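Need residues for this backbone.
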């Protein structure tokens, strides 16, 4: 039994059953290719059965190392970008206290992030904080050569060594990278850092359920076994269930492609809880990098409601009709606040007396869904009973499996990202990186 539920009720008036049937055969072939490793990008399908086959010794080792670090430090700095950053942040922010930076008596280190931008002020501000705090760093890069995290790590390594001395610094740095290749791997071996491996056959944006996501999540105090358990549960369901109606990943993949074919070229992932903001960011990378290629692909956008109902709401309701929405809806909150009675009722809110904030939020969600459907925006709804490690594990695997299927429906390789290299080449040329002399000459002429 899975906890995640996909509801297409508010999308059905936008398509006919027989349109789904037309795509169904291709979906089945896509699924076979995914499971038999016979489709495009077949060397990067290690994530498909990773949760059910997860190495118990590796979990134990990560838990022990995470506990050691958590005991010693107030802050863990995660250095990484893209798939080497977003998954961990998505899970941690979904589960941690909403105001974790101000939370007193926190049981686990505060997690901060660097290496996903090139802001000098951001780095300098971080160093200013780290000067006065006990901290450790985990540097994550599959290639081991990505400029943004490498740059941030050079500065952090320098700081940590000056603060604690080279020998003690070693114990405060963990590297997560390729088994054999890349400058980070070589540096980690030379310096003797604790190292965890990103499997060869798992690409960055599919790597949250490897040490890339699991180690920082464990240091933040969350149960990585439950996360894997939830994912394994969804893995079994996605693989074994062939009925479209009963397999949410298959249904999600097919419906979003149908909308794309009908000119709905933008999908908006909607959340009604600020803690889900980074789930949306993670999803945007997963779907954007997997599908946006060869002049094709649904553009993945995200909104946080109610906040964005007062900024993007107008466009969604009445702007160009090239949108569909997918809502992540959470049934129960962890904490309860009921609306109190007020004898003056100056704000006119007594009609909500005794209702909880979550009840009101759910009415806002339903009201918005119906309004958007009336405005021509189809709506898919993913429901989880509550946010915890198990349900997030299910959600992550659901989105990954559906993304693989969806990429195959679109006839692209959902596991590469050739387009990301373009800006890197230009940047290296502009910065004068050795080996890029010809490009430097060319680009200099373009910007004169
Ligand atoms: O999905 C991907 O492969 C990318 O988004 C990478 O995760 C990102 O570019 C970071 O790469 P690396 O882990 O090699 O530093």
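Answer:
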């Amino acid at each position: 039994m899975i906890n995640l539920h996909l509801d297409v009720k508010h999308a059905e008036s936008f398509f006919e059953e027989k349109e789904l049937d037309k795509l169904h055969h291709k979906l089945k072939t896509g699924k076979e290719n995914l499971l038999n490793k016979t489709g495009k990008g077949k060397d990067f399908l290690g994530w498909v059965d990773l949760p059910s086959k997860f190495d118990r010794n590796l979990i134990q080792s990560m838990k022990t190392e995470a506990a050691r670090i958590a005991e010693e430090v107030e802050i863990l700095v995660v250095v990484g970008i893209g798939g080497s950053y977003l998954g961990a942040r998505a899970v941690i922010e979904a589960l941690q206290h909403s105001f974790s930076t101000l939370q007193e008596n926190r049981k686990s280190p505060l997690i901060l992030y660097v290496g996903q931008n090139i802001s000098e002020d951001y780095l300098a501000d971080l160093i200013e904080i780290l000067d006065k705090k006990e901290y450790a760093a985990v540097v994550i890069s599959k290639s081991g050569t990505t400029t943004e995290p490498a740059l941030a790590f050079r500065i952090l390594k320098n700081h940590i060594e000056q603060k604690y001395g080279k020998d003690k610094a070693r114990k405060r740095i963990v590297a997560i990278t390729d088994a054999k290749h890349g400058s980070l791997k070589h540096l980690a071996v030379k310096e003797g850092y604790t190292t965890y491996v990103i499997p060869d056959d798992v690409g960055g944006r599919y790597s949250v359920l490897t040490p890339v996501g699991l180690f920082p999540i464990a240091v933040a105090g969350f149960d990585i076994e439950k996360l894997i358990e939830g994912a394994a549960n969804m893995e079994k369901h996605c693989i074994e269930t062939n009925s479209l109606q009963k397999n949410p990943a298959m249904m999600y993949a097919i419906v979003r492609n149908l909308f794309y074919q009908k000119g709905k070229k933008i999908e908006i992932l909607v959340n009604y809880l600020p803690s889900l903001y980074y789930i949306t960011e993670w999803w945007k990378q997963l779907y954007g990098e997997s599908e946006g290629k060869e002049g094709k692909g649904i553009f993945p956008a995200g909104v946080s409601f109610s906040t964005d109902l007062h900024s993007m709401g107008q466009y969604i309701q009445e702007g160009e009709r090239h949108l569909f929405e997918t809502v992540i809806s959470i049934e129960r909150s962890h904490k309860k606040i009921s609306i109190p009675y007020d004898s003056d009722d100056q704000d006119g809110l007594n009609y909500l007396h005794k209702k909880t904030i979550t009840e009101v939020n759910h009415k806002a969600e339903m009201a918005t869904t119906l309004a958007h459907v009336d405005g021509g925006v189809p709506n898919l709804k993913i429901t989880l009973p509550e946010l915890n490690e198990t349900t997030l594990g299910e959600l992550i695997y659901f989105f990954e499996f559906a993304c693989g299927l969806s990429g195959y429906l679109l006839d692209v390789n959902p596991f590469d990202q050739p387009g990301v290299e373009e800006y890197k080449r230009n940047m290296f040329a502009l910065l004068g990186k050795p080996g890029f002399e010809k490009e430097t000459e060319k680009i200099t002429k373009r910007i004169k």
